[in-house]
Amino acid sequence: MSKPTDLVQGTLDLLILKMLALEPMNGWAIGQRLKQLSADVLQVSDGSLYPALHKLEQEGWVSAEWRQSENNRRAKFYSLTRAGRKQLQIEASNWDRLARAITTVVRLQEV
Amino acid sequence: MTIERFLRIIPLRLRSVFHRSDVERELDEELEYHIEQQTAQNIRAGMTPQVARTAALRAIGGIEFRKEQVRDTRGTRWLEEAARDLRFAVRSLRHSPAFTAVVVLTLALGIGANTAIFSVVRGVLLKPLPHRDGDRLVYLRHSMDGPGGANLNFSVPEVRDLRDGTTSFAGMAEYSSWGVTLQGSEGAESIAVGLVTGNYFDVMGLAPVLGRVTGPADDGPGVPPVMVLTYDGWITRFGGDPDIVGRQLQVEDASVTVIGVLQPAPFFPTRVDALLNMVISPHHLSASMVEGRTHRMTEVVARLEPDATVEQARGEVVAVAARLRQAYPDAYDAGAHQRMSVIPFKRVMGERAQLTLWLLMSAAAFVLIIAAANVANLTLMRGVRRDQELVVRAALGAGATRLRRLLLAENLVLTLIGAALGAAVAIGGVGLLKSFAERYSTRANEIRLDLPVLGFAVALAVALALVLSFLATLPKEGTYASRIAAGMRRMSGSLRKQRLQRALVVVQIAVSVVLLAGATLLTRTMIQLSQVETGLRTEEILTVEVGIRPTQLLRDPSSDAQTKERYYRMRDAIAALPGVTAVAIGTPGPLRSSTVRFEVKAEAKALAVGEAIPRAEMRLANPEFFRASGIPLVAGREFTSTDQRGSARVVIVNQALADRLFPGTDPIGQRVAWTGDLMRFTPFSTDWRTVVGVVRNTQDGGLDAEPRAAMYMPFAQELTVAGSLVIRADSNVAALIPAVTRIVRRLAPTAPIDEVMTIAQIKDQSVSPRRLNAALVSSFGLLAVIIAAVGIAGVLAFSVSARTNEIGIRMSLGADSSRVQRMILGEGGLLLAVGLVLGVVGAYFGARVIRGLLFGVAPHDPVTLVVVPVMMAVIGVVACWIPALRASRIDPAISMRVT
Known about the structure:
The structure holds two protein chains of two kinds.
Chain A: H1 11-22, E1 25-26, H2 27-37, H3 46-59, E2 62-68, E3 74-80, H4 82-106
Antiparallel strand pairs in A: 1-3, 2-3
Helix pairs in contact in A: 1-4
Chain B: H1 3-18, H2 20-44, H3 49-60, H4 63-73, H5 77-95, H6 97-126, E1 137-143, H7 156-165, E2 169-184, E3 187-196, H8 200-204, E4 208-211, E5 226-229, H9 231-238, E6 248-251, E7 254-262, E8 274-277, H10 282-285, H11 287-291, E9 299-304, H12 310-327, E10 339-344, H13 345-395, H14 400-437, H15 451-471, H16 480-486, H17 495-530, E11 541-546, H18 550-555, H19 559-575, E12 580-587, E13 597-602, E14 615-621, H20 625-629, E15 633-636, E16 650-654, H21 655-661, E17 671-675, E18 689-695, E19 710-714, E20 723-729, H22 737-747, E21 753-758, H23 759-802, H24 804-812, H25 817-849, H26 862-888, H27 892-898
Parallel strand pairs in B: 3-8, 5-7, 14-19, 16-18
Antiparallel strand pairs in B: 1-9, 1-10, 2-3, 2-9, 4-7, 5-8, 6-7, 11-20, 11-21, 12-14, 12-20, 13-14, 13-17, 15-18, 16-19, 17-18
């Protein structure tokens, strides 16, 4: 089984960090919110979310704690750490540069 | 990485390792929550509960796969796998306890021997000196040819010239070995001290742990005498008393203040209890010492300038020495190549130990090589039996790295257990080795099994494990099926493996021969040495050195009569003891070396140009001395009671001096005299003296030393500067020690008693280092032979069991049992023969290296080079015979049915 390649490499991390910058969330909620916000354009596979979240946790960019969810079930909530906030800035600006560059190339007038 | 992030990550990683089940449970729970939520959403979208859950699971994309992905993020996977490999290794080793036990024991002996010897090598030779910038320290050596010429020391004028004539040294300190009498609570004791210049501690880079050390202000006359205790002296003499600083001690006739305790540091050149400033010894400040160019009793230690090299310093010192030889031809014996040099201090400290230690280290390394070869053979054999298992594993998808890692884990378990046991062996042996090393170096007390030494053991273990893991061949991809099909029938393993096994056996035999040859040479050395004639007729002799104070004599020469009287009274009291047959007075005692050596000349002999000036030890003896000591008179007469103060001066020479001065002529009646500049500083006359007797040489410098020239003067005719009592008894002279000590204490309460030893003990002192050498190398040799014998027997036994089928066929076709025996013996014999030849060649060259440790045997001793291979051959043939016998008893019917 190969890894899902539904997103540009590394952008999932950026998306998750951004989601968590808004408020602490559990894995399920992050997935739902991503779909909503991107009007279902960004199809993040449910499965790939968790390895990504755990990786961010192990890197020290997000921290996790067990809390009651809205439907009164225990769920693992992730929130951004200070280091994570910095990382978000870095990755966001990286993304901006990349996006600008790609846009420029794509819009080149063909002769 | 910021510290904050670091602090967050560490507990996470630790938790993944140590609370793995918690972490896993939480992961399950987290994923389960997701699935429940998704299922609920799917139901809301109109699915049936069953379908909804399946869809949710599918959306995750394989729960176990995601879990593995999550686990990968923890970065602790390798650890988990390693743990699993280790657990598996332990389990599979437990299935073959015999194999494990043999391998672990073999390794324990090999690694233990190496660890123990390495601890000594490190402590004595390798460890950095505790001195500040110890690698900048150098020792200046003044030497010449001939016995006793290895270290002449320097005179104060020479040190002055060296200081003025060199620029490479930041400082040059003087050290003089001295003995003083300390009036302690339990009577007078003579203690060894060093007299040092004020800059000594600064040059040496040593600091006090208590109080202060001396400085330039403590130099010269007219300053109060002060004492810095060595750390060892502080502990052993004063029990580590924390209030010692400021204490007044009665030393000689003076009251000396203890000003400090020195940090622990190796002694140089010998063990001392304290270091004092020069003022305590009037002699050291006297004109004779300060102005006498040949009055050499100062060791010189220097510190190099930061940018200077040893070579530069050596060049400067050699240049100064050449200038001095020109300016003062009388003070330097060109015929004996008198010379000065500069040697790194650390090297001087390990000088005497070096050859012996490297010998032992290589002997230990040889043992390890043999042990490793054995273990390699055992694992190779086991590997053949495990081929099956490995092929199956490979067929099931274990990659080459995975298999290699599994083997490595197994070998690591083996070698690390071996190393742990080996360290235990080494800990047991380190005490013995310490007392062994004490004979060679004052750094022996630095020997310990510290972290670097244990690290050495672990490094050995890991290196061995790596080698063993890569010796085993892994099944090649694509051959699995055929190999599984071949199954049990292919037991013999590949040709490559067999060749490797045989090569290892050959190496084992060769190395064993080299070790055995070394052991034999050293053992023969030891035996030769203990059979050396001491020059004495009997060993039932006790010698007791009774110190008197030369300082008193210098001040008041008339006190000499009293001193002599005191010795006579001791002699008479001891002679009255039951069992005593003779008592004599002389100095030094028989078999004791003397440092008092002066130039001598004979009236009838002119010195040839360029010939080394003859020198002789100065010895004193009373009329009974030679009889009591059992030294045979060769010609002339002994001293008599008429050889008195004021009567004609007479001497007795030993054969070595007689041969040197009067070759081919009768020495009796010849006239000889002490000579040389140095005599000015002694109370002894340079008048002509008549030789009245010649006595046999005695082994005063040790049993392995060349006999030294000696000249005896009558005790009664000269001033008494020291004295030994020589006591001879019918039997068991050692039993007299308490009574003799009591008498000396009663008659000379303030005189220290030293060196109470029987001749047998003195002799033993000379032999015992060699005995230990021989014993250590012999036990290594024995170990090697046993391991090698097991090795060759094991390889042949394996070969037999692998060829059971073939042998069965041969026998059913008509080969009888003796033919089968011959076949197996021939197989082993070939290995043995090749190993023996290589071993003899190795021993031939190896013996050259240890020439310096041998005595009385040539390095290429033909007896050794013949006896050892024969011995090894016999052992080897016996080792081959056992499997050969087994092969010949194979029942063809059974062997072919079973396989």
